[in-house]
Design a protein that fits this description.
With 833 residues, this protein is α+β, with helices and mostly antiparallel strands. The protein folds into four domains: 136 residues, Sandwich (Immunoglobulin-like); 169 residues, no CATH class; 192 residues, P-loop containing nucleotide triphosphate hydrolases (Rossmann fold, 3-Layer(aba) Sandwich); 110 residues, no CATH class. It contains 30 helices and 17 strands. The strands form four sheets. Strands 2, 3, 4, 6 and 7 form a five-stranded antiparallel beta sheet that branches. Strands 11-12-13-10-14 form a five-stranded parallel beta sheet. Helix 7 runs antiparallel to helix 8, helix 9 packs across helix 10 and helix 26 packs across helix 28. The relative contact order is 0.04. The structure holds adenosine-5'-triphosphate (ATP). Adenosine-5'-triphosphate binds next to helix 10, helix 18 and helix 24.
């Protein structure tokens, strides 16, 4: 915004008799002075006591702080100054922008001799820009702060009172600017305001007192130079705390200077005294001037650093933003709570040192074998080792990504997701990789087939940067066997595609010695296998682990340091047979969250006639038996239902969700879960999940005399399936007969189906599988028949198909097609919607 000043007219003039010597009637004109003494002069209006000029001129930019109006009588051969008025532009701007203002014109003795009508108009848009830049170039203003500094006014060779007052007005104008942005600069504002007031008084004194000491001139000159930052002060200060501090000190110093000048000029607290009598005034002024110049230097340097940091940061931020937008297109796993890598624990310090060292050595040593595969039976400790290996490489900044597969979260092992997660992790691991992958992402590849995506998203980008990287970068994949139906394509992706990547990218894969995995990995030159053989591994690790857990239990329960005896510790080590999950479950049973009597529990454990070491099924049975009174039919029914819900839920559920799904009274599931601490991980209000996958295996394992629980659970699964089906219909408010409600179809159904699928579908699948497989073993009693009939009803088939082909039928049309197929709606239905 630029400003134009209008001088309109004068009135109420007192025409003194002495002036008549210069003419009978006045010939009047007005001069307007800004801080640079750029004078604007109106034309002369003759013989008129109420002259009207209506003339305007553009103020210099940046606008001056004060304007002086002088009324002259144009006498022959002589111009007589009649009266003068002064007003600050800020005051004019605030109180009367675009409005006429009357100001009193006074004689030197403060006598009012008339009134002058002026106004200030704002110019905006192109004209303002033009005017400002024209004036800026006229006064050699540099570009705005943020790039370089912009001096408000550099007054060269200050030598006279007039110029001194100009210089002071420059400082004032700058201070005014700071005062104006006061709200933004809450800390600075009060000081700036005070300094401005003192300086205003100094300015007035200087105006009246024409001659000025050279020292004051020098000081004011230093102040003027210093205030070059003030126009953009809010920008500068808002962007840096350090600069804010400097500005604050500058302002305090200004106050100091203003006070001194005022004193020096004889208008301070000391009253009218000789300048020379101010003790050491000259020296003090020199000091202040030097300090001001130092502050200016500090400010400039601070700003220079700040400016370059800001620009570098802005560039960096823009780049990062761009990249993170591109990377956000990647499909990453949304781990259901409790299933992500962050929930995994590392090995107890001191355990597994040899194997971790061996694996990290293999992964950091260049070799043909790009993949290290660790195989081992369930619960032997693979995930824990994988977590430690990941953390080791994360610490070195060399972890590409850590993928954990679990059978409860099959989506997480979708090969596309795996590919994307690796691309994302590697991009985050190194800026060059990020750049290369983001370039690929800008080519819109994400709908392309898997092999093409591998080629474009990983292979090419990594190839393109391989010479700029010092390897290795490690990708850890835990639980490959848990990827179920993705196993084939994932195995193929890892063994045949990932091995084509540059040698710096190494893979650490763990799995049970699953046949499908072995088929792909064994006999592949790119794979080095290391198996965790619990029968031959040395027992130090498990012994250390058992002792550590026992110490914790002892401390927690305040037991004697002799508990348990060494021989019992050894017995536990033997019983564990090197199987960590056995040791972990046994010690949870003895001293976990729900055990109040570790001594008794330990005794019970040791009394159990384990048929073989590592017999997990027996251990799980023991843990369940001790969880409550199974002879109480109420407890038995609810506990089985709750266990089944936990074992089968795709997404871990809270106790209240379990209550809702099973139609139990609020708090029932929590009561049961309180007793299942050694096999289920749960705390009030949290999601419940089996402590280890092997407990799920146990519950859903083949029915046999050794494991009566699996039959109990299967029976409960059947009930659960029916309960879920009912809940599904009730909660989803989805009555097939109401399909015409297209709003419901379009907006609610896809989301609801998702909820339903995540909680219910595994239950249905399991119940179907189990009862299908055991049909021959059981009499088709009424209950089972009812159950099967419900499974075979059109509605059920519809739901089953809806669940299994959810991807394809995300649209209302898809559901309709299915509904028609099962004759749940008539063929003409589609036309009606
Ligand atoms: N070195 C160790 N230090 C501390 N705890 C361990 C260690 N190894 C295993 N555990 C504990 O033993 C249990 C089983 O370990 P883990 O889950 O790593 O086995 P796994 O071989 O991955 O089993 P699965 O094949 O079923 O996934 C976990 O509770 C884990 O916390």
């Amino acid at each position: 915004m630029a400003l134009t000043l209008f001088v309109h007219s004068a009135s109420d003039l007192i025409w003194k008799p002495s002036w008549r010597d210069f003419g009978k009637s006045p010939s009047l004109y007005v001069t307007v002075h800004d801080r640079k003494d750029h004078v604007f002069k109106t034309r002369v209006v003759k013989a008129n006591f109420e002259p009207t000029w209506n003339e305007s001129f553009d103020l210099t930019w940046p606008p001056p702080s004060m304007l002086t109006f002088r009324l002259f009588h144009d006498a022959p051969g002589l111009d007589v100054r009649i009266a003068e008025a002064e007003i600050s532009v800020g005051a004019l701007e605030q109180s009367s922008l675009n409005e006429d203002v009357w100001i009193d014109m006074k004689a030197p003795m403060d006598e009012v001799l008339g009134r002058l009508c002026v106004s200030l108009r704002a110019i905006t848009g192109d004209k303002a820009v033009e005017q400002m830049s024209e004036q800026a170039s006229r006064f050699e203003l540099r570009p705005p702060v943020g790039v370089t500094l912009d001096p408000v006014a550099t007054v060269e060779g200050l030598s006279s009172g007039a110029k001194l007052s100009d210089a002071l007005s420059g400082v004032l104008s700058a201070l005014e600017n700071i005062v104006k942005v006061g709200d933004e600069l809450a800390k600075i504002h009060p000081y700036a305001n005070a300094a401005w007031k003192v300086l205003t008084s100094v300015y007035k004194i200087v105006q009246n007192q024409r001659e000025a000491d050279e020292k004051v001139v020098k000081l004011v000159d230093a102040m003027t130079k210093l205030y070059s930052f003030a126009k953009e002060v809010d920008f500068v200060v808002k962007n840096s705390k350090a600069v804010e501090e400097t500005v604050l000190r500058i302002i305090m110093q200004t106050m100091e200077c203003a006070l001194l000048i005022r004193e020096y000029l004889g208008h301070g607290f000391m009253g009218r005294i000789a300048q020379t009598s101010i003790l050491g005034a000259g020296q003090r002024i020199d000091q202040l001037a030097a300090e001001l110049l130092r502050l200016k230097d500090e400010f400039d340097r601070g700003l220079a650093v700040q400016t370059s940091v800001v620009s570098a940061q802005i560039l960096d931020t823009v780049e990062k933003l761009k990249n993170s937008l591109l990377l956000s297109d990647l499909r990453l796993p949304t781990h259901p709570s409790g299933l992500g890598p962050s929930t995994r624990r590392e090995c107890l310090p001191g355990t597994r040192s040899e194997i971790i060292e061996h694996i990290t050595h293999l992964l950091t040593t260049p070799s043909e074998a790009q993949i290290v595969w660790l195989s081992g039976v369930a619960g032997s400790g693979k995930t824990t080792i994988a977590t430690s290996v990941s953390e080791y490489f994360r610490g070195l900044g060399r972890l590409g990504t850590f993928l954990c597969f679990t059978r409860n979260d099959l989506d997480g092992s979708d090969p596309i997701l795996v590919l994307h997660t690796i691309a994302y992790g590697l991009a985050k691991a190194h800026p060059n990789i990020e750049q290369a992958i983001c370039q690929a992402l800008s080519r819109n590849l994400l709908e392309a087939p898997l092999d093409k995506q591998f080629q474009e998203l990983l292979f090419r980008p990594l190839e393109s940067v391989k010479h700029h990287l010092i390897g290795p970068f490690i990708i850890v994949i835990d639980g490959l066997d848990e990827s179920a139906h993705w196993l084939d394509s994932l195995g193929n992706l890892i063994a045949n595609f990932f091995t084509k990547l540059p040698a710096a990218f190494r893979f650490f894969v763990t799995s049970r010695p699953h046949f499908e995995v072995a088929k792909v990995f064994r006999h592949t030159a790119a794979v080095q296998e290391r198996s965790l053989d619990i029968t031959t591994e040395d027992r130090n690790d498990i012994s250390l682990y058992i002792r550590d857990r026992l110490t914790t239990i002892r401390q927690h329960h305040g037991l004697s340091h002799t508990w348990p005896e060494e021989q019992i510790v050894r017995q536990l080590v033997d019983l564990s047979g090197n199987l960590f999950i056995w040791a972990a479950t046994a010690l949870d049973f003895v001293g976990g969250r729900n055990s109040f009597q570790p001594r008794k529990r330990l005794q019970k454990l040791l009394e159990t006639p384990f048929r073989a070491a590592t017999n997990l099924a027996q251990l799980y049975s023991l843990a369940l038996q001790c969880a409550g009174n199974w002879n109480d039919s109420n407890f038995k029914e609810t506990a089985t239902a709750v266990l089944t819900a936990i074992a089968l839920a795709k997404v871990p559920m809270t106790d209240s969700t379990i209550d809702a799904i099973l139609g139990l009274d609020a708090g029932t599931a929590a009561d049961v879960l309180e007793h299942l601490g050694s096999v289920v991980h749960w705390s009030t209000g949290q999601r419940a999940q089996t402590l280890h996958a092997s407990f799920g295996d146990f519950l859903m394992g083949p029915y046999c005399a050794n494991n009566p629980w699996s039959f109990t659970v299967a029976k409960a699964a059947k009930t659960l399936a029916l309960a879920c089906f009912a809940v599904m219909q009730k909660h989803l408010r989805f009555n097939i007969c109401q399909l015409p409600d297209s709003h419901l179809l379009n907006s609610e159904v896809p989301g609801l189906l998702e909820t339903m699928e995540s909680h219910v579908s595994p239950v249905l699948m399991y119940a179907t599988r189990f009862w299908g497989a055991h049909l021959g073993d059981f009499e088709l009693d009424d209950e089972i028949l009812v159950f099967l009939r419900s499974f075979l009803s059109d509605k059920f088939l519809f739901w089953l198909e809806v669940l299994s082909v959810r991807q394809e039928m995300a649209s209302a049309a898809g559901i309709l097609r299915l509904a028609q197929k099962y004759t749940l709606v008539s063929a003409g239905f589609e036309a009606r919607t």
